[in-house]
Every structure is written in C-alpha cells, then in structure tokens.
Design a protein that fits this description.
Layout lengths: L2 H7 L40 H13 L4 E5 L2 H8 L8 E5 L4 H11 L5 E5 L4 H7 L4 E7 L11 H11 L2 E5 L4 H4 L9 E5 L13 E5 L2 H14 L5 H12 L1 H19 L5 E5 L9 H7 L6 E6 L2 H10 L4 E2 L9 E3 L11 H6 L6 E5 L5 H12 L2
Parallel strand pairs: 2-3, 2-4, 4-5, 5-6, 10-11
Antiparallel strand pairs: 1-7, 6-7, 8-9, 9-12, 11-12
Helix pairs in contact: 1-2, 2-9, 12-14
Length: 378
C-alpha cells in the first residue's frame, strides 16, 4: 500500500462484527477469560487493548517497523526507553535538543547513573570523538528543536554499527510521511504523537517504533512494567488523527515554504531556519534522506522588542507551546520549551531573546503572512 492508504487502512484487523468503519473504543480496564488457561488475546489494558493495538500496528507499518508502542506522552516514551540502560552507561545526544528531553537526561537519567555528552550530531567526526567504552547509544533529533539542524542518519548508523551502539532518532518533526529513520539504519524511532501524528492539538501521546524482534521484546517488558500506556479513548483520537497525516503534512509544508520565503525578505527578520531553503547548511542531506521538509520554521528578529511585539499582536497565529496541529502556533523557546536549559548553553545555540519558533498549520498561507506582517509592525 502507498503511504496515504496506510494512514487510513494500516491495520485491517476487525475487532467487532458490526461492520463499524471507525475502530471501536474498548473502554475496558480488564477482559474476561473464556476459561482457565484461556485468553481472548487481551487480559488487562496496561498490557494491551484492542483500540491501542490498532493504533500501534498502524504506526509500525508507517515507520516500516515490526512493532510500535503507544505511550501516554512523548516524554513517557523516552523515559521508558531509558530503562534499557544501566548505571554507568554513556550517551551521545544532539546538543540542540527539545528542552524536555534535555531535562530528562540531565536531571532524571543523570540521577540514575547515566551520563551524557551533547554534540552537533551533524558533525560525524565530533560524534565519533566522543565515543568511549561505556557508550551505549546515540540519540538524534533531526531536524532539531528549535534550530533545525539536520543529521545524516545513515552516516551515524554506520558509526553506531561499527561500535555496537543503539541509534535512537526522534522523528517528531517530519513523521514517517517525510522521513523513515528505521530504513536509514536507526534502531528505535521516537515520536511525540501529540504533534503531527495526532494533528489537532487535543491529545497527548508518544511512540517508540522498532524493527528488531529482540528489542521489541525488551521494550514491551518495560512498557507493561512501568505502565505509561495510552488510554483507549486517546488511542482512538490518535487513530482519527493519523488518517489525515499525509494530506496535512503536504499542505502544511506548502504553507511553510511560502512563509519561510516571505520571512527571508522582511527587514525585521535577520535569520530564517527552515530545512527546505537551499541556504540551509544541511539542505542536501535533507534532500537525500527525506521526501519533504516539514512545516517547522524558526526565525530571529532584529530585536527583543520586535519578538515580544509579534507575540502580543498575532491574531490568526496563536502564542502557545506545542506544534504540529492544524492551528498555527508561535513559541518563544527561551521562555517555554527551553527555559530549563542554562542561559549560556541556550544562547550558544542561538536560542536567545530574539528567536521565535513557528509551527505552520492549515490556514491560508496568505492569511498567515498577513498576520505576521501586521504583528511585525512598521
């Protein structure tokens, strides 16, 4: 099946006999046994639930994996992932990393005995220089949040295989619609399903997808033991969202390109970070490993006053955290997504008081540009 069809019919298992087109919401915590030693295949919803199973099988197919696990949030998915490792293990992670991931690694995983080096993972030589005997995995965001750095996944995969490391790729920004990390050599794909997969800013969810049976078994054990599974109703909302993933991504990307090009011409915009612009330093890598550029843009204004004024004056675009929904959202990373990162480290990456991040939605591109123009002022 083509990707668009998989979004809608990715799992053709029938869970009832009514002919319902929409997958039923099996809002049950537990399931009765037909007899002693017998099971319907479902025993307790923390282990598996038919609604969640439908979603997980769909996501696995979209990512070209053999299994996917649906969690209550993206951070719950990453927290479960970290349970694969033991005190003393070392990680290399993208230095321009979502603030929540950075907070988990530095304050929770660090407390539990794991250590981290953060680096520009688009620099393979730098990543290679940080590998040591206790290194167990490399964690990559590509494109990164919010500076839109792009990592060559296949190149990092080769490095990981050479040293016996796991490669984890956060695929939240591009989704399997535009990027398939497992095909490029990743071992585990992470998603905040809250974002593009759900697509409507109404559901929290997270995913891990894998293509290795042994890794799936290990993660499934952690999953059922730690228990941060996605509820049946939220699973149903995610199923509904995924059905329109392909058309949403294409339209949002189309809007983003128009807006990025317009921002490049505005006198109050000093830098535009969008992977679809030929001026982006990793533009050629993006073209090689993806089928689209996504709809996330970061841009630097000429002053803090301009940035704050835009946040106060936007009308169609809303000033809010998160991304990937049908509504366009603008975020102030230094105060929102990256507030917990030390100021010096944050500003060294370019996350300063002039930087804004825009998640482009499904509104008219002309209306969004008009909104930005009036918000930027004269």
């Amino acid at each position: 099946m083509e990707f668009e069809t998989l979004c809608i019919h990715g799992n053709d298992t029938r869970y009832d006999s009514t002919g319902a087109i929409s997958v039923p919401i099996f809002q049950s915590a537990t399931f009765a046994h037909p007899g002693v030693g017998l099971s319907t295949g479902y025993d307790y919803s923390r282990l598996q639930n038919p609604t969640r199973e439908h979603l997980e099988k769909t996501i696995a197919k979209l990512e070209n994996g053999i299994d996917a696990m649906a969690f209550s949030t993206g951070m719950a998915a990453i927290a479960a992932l970290m349970e694969l490792f033991s005190p003393g293990d070392h990680f290399i992670a993208s230095d321009d990393l979502y603030g929540g991931s950075h907070r988990l690694f530095c304050h929770i995983s660090g407390k539990n005995g794991l250590s981290f080096d953060f680096a520009d993972t688009s620099d393979i030589e730098k990543v290679s220089s940080l590998i040591r005997p206790e290194t167990k995995a490399i964690f990559v965001e590509t494109p990164t949040n919010p500076m839109m750095q792009v990592t060559d996944i296949a190149a990092v995969s080769e490095l990981c295989k050479e040293h016996g490391l796991l490669l984890v790729v956060d695929n939240t920004f591009l989704t399997p619609c535009f990027q398939k990390p497992l095909d490029l050599g990743a071992d585990i794909v992470v998603h905040s399903g809250t974002k593009y997969l759900g697509g409507h800013n109404d559901t929290l969810a997270g995913f891990l997808a894998v293509s290795d049976a042994a890794l799936s078994e290990r993660l499934r054990f952690i999953y059922k033991t730690t228990g941060a599974c996605l509820s049946p109703f939220d699973s149903w909302l995610m199923i509904r969202g995924v059905k329109t993933l392909a058309v949403r991504m294409e339209r949002q990307q189309e809007n983003a390109m128009k807006i990025a090009q317009w921002l490049c011409t505005h006198k109050k915009i000093k830098k535009v970070y969008y992977v679809g612009l030929p001026s982006h330093p990793q533009y050629e890598i993006s073209k090689k490993q993806t089928t689209g550029f996504g709809a996330m843009i970061s841009f630097e204004t000429d002053s803090e006053k301009t940035a704050l004024g835009l946040l106060q004056r936007v009308n169609v675009i809303q000033y809010a955290e998160s991304l990937g929904g049908v509504e366009s959202l603008v975020t102030y990373p230094m105060l929102q997504t990256h507030a917990d990162i030390p100021k010096e480290a944050r500003e060294a990456k370019g996350i300063n008081e002039r930087l804004l991040r825009l998640s482009v939605g499904l509104e008219s591109a002309a209306d969004l540009i008009a909104d930005l123009e009036q918000a930027l002022g004269d």
